[in-house]
Specification:
alpha+beta; Nuclear Transport Factor 2, Chain: A; 2 domains; six-stranded mixed beta sheet; about 35% strand; binds 2-acetamido-2-deoxy-beta-D-glucopyranose
């Protein structure tokens, strides 16, 4: 785990370095516009509706380099729920989508990263029937009443606190001694399964959660972590957290089962 932490911090340092040059005009307004354009692009099934999309964008779906013109963005989807978070430090966005339309029930998470004035990287975790605890209908039912709204400035946690809470939870899968800052109450929405009230119900053990990519939004106390849930063959995964007062309030997970065909 020590090695992983070093890798993660090198990764963040690298991101911080190259974003310094472009951070001047990376505003919340711009990121919101980019995220909204992404949601609209998915609703229309027209990827090129994404604003500031680099013509050399790197696109990744479920841990595979993919063709953005043929992936999920090529399908028009009736979106039941969308929620985006904005990271002005890294110049990145994260968007959660829930589609209950029986034609194509889908729950997805997407990170978009700017380099300079263009979006140069998009990574999505796209889950369907057959993925871990998948049920778009119940995901929507449980996610809807949750409060992921703005946190008053004086109550906001730092980026470091928000990330540390998420990292503690993820480290617990491979180190039973880690102390996780569980909130009271706390709810875990894993696929379409809801563990509501108390989150300290245990996690599997012996599972390293590697290759973590973060999008952090202090204004709403959130961090989305895309990662590889290890094992054989491993599950491409998104864990998103809402942190309040340094403690975990909500967790949303999407875990792809790569050993069976999508949607089966
Ligand atoms: C950056 O985005 C703008 C606006 O979408 C676009 O016109 C331009 O071609 C993009 N630049 C590159 C290098 O992709
Ligand atoms: C898939 O995940 C592995 C393990 O985290 C990582 O090393 C690899 O770069 C990923 N591949 C792609 C195409 O994202
Ligand atoms: C995304 O969610 C916002 C409310 O948060 C809503 O106003 C908007 O219409 C939604 N967009 C789509 C395409 O569903
Ligand atoms: C960002 O763009 C600069 C200039 O084109 C390039 O040197 C750098 O490698 C890019 N960084 C990433 C992470 O793509
Ligand atoms: C950032 O500023 C540069 C220089 O003013 C401009 O060319 C670019 O379009 C801006 N990027 C965005 C996404 O607004
Ligand atoms: C999803 O949950 C709903 C409500 O509990 C249930 O009616 C439905 O059969 C479930 N769908 C699947 C695909 O399991
Ligand atoms: C496990 O977590 C404990 C508590 O944070 C820490 O002291 C220990 O170094 C960790 N073990 C490993 C192997 O990372
Ligand atoms: C993944 O799907 C396969 C084939 O349907 C199934 O045997 C396996 O139990 C699933 N794994 C998980 C972690 O759900």
């Amino acid at each position: 785990m020590v090695r992983l932490h070093i890798e993660a911090s090198l990764f963040l340092t690298t991101l911080a370095l190259f974003n310094d040059a472009s951070a001047k005009n990376c505003t919340r307004a711009m990121l919101q516009e980019a995220a909204d354009s992404y949601v609209a692009a998915q609703a229309a099934g027209i990827y090129s509706n994404i604003k500031w999309l680099s013509n050399t964008v790197t696109y990744n779906e479920n841990n595979k380099t993919a063709d953005i013109t043929k992936g999920i963005l090529s399908q028009a989807l009736v979106i039941s729920h969308n929620r985006s978070t904005l990271d002005t430090t890294q110049c990145a966005t994260y968007t959660e989508l829930i589609i209950v339309d029986p034609k194509n029930p889908t729950v997805s998470g997407t990170q978009m990263r700017f380099n300079g004035s263009n979006i140069t990287k998009i990574e999505s975790i796209v889950t369907h029937k057959g993925d871990w605890a998948f049920n778009a209908t119940t995901t929507l039912i449980y996610a809807t009443p949750e409060n992921w709204g703005i946190i008053p400035v004086e109550k906001r946690d730092t980026r470091a606190t928000i990330q540390a809470a998420a990292d503690a939870y993820l480290d617990l899968f491979n180190n039973a001694s880690v102390v996780v800052p569980w909130g009271t109450p706390c709810a875990r929405l894993e696929g379409g399964m809801y563990l509501n009230g108390n989150c300290d119900l245990g996690v599997p053990s012996g599972i390293p959660m590697t290759n973590r990519r973060y999008v952090i939004d202090e204004t709403v106390g959130t961090v989305d972590v895309m990662l590889m849930l290890d094992g054989a063959p491993g599950m491409p995964d998104s864990h998103e957290y809402r942190i309040e007062g340094g403690k975990i309030r909500y967790v949303h997970t999407m875990s792809v089962n790569v050993t069976h065909p999508a949607g089966i």
